[in-house]
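Write out this protein's structure.
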Amino acid sequence: MSQYLKVDRLLPGENGMIRIMKDEAGEIGTVSRVDVILTCGGLEPFPVDPSGEMDLSNPGKAVKFTVDGILFLAIRIQVVNMINQWPRRKAALFGVVE
């Protein structure tokens, strides 16, 4: 079983975009709020700009972001709360501990 460490967060951005932030690297990608809503509803995968993909974990409890071949996770309920309380909320982003 993999272990995960909080590496930063998802932040509401301009024009309905969600910014994927990573400590020390800054913004590593963006996804549209509409695509995130569809992903949380079970439709997948969707692109992450500039290079990546977003989909749900197998149990459906996390939203997976693969950016430049690196896997990051956000807890699905936090992402849903972020969307429902837009733009006041954010969601934690976790990376795999190697």
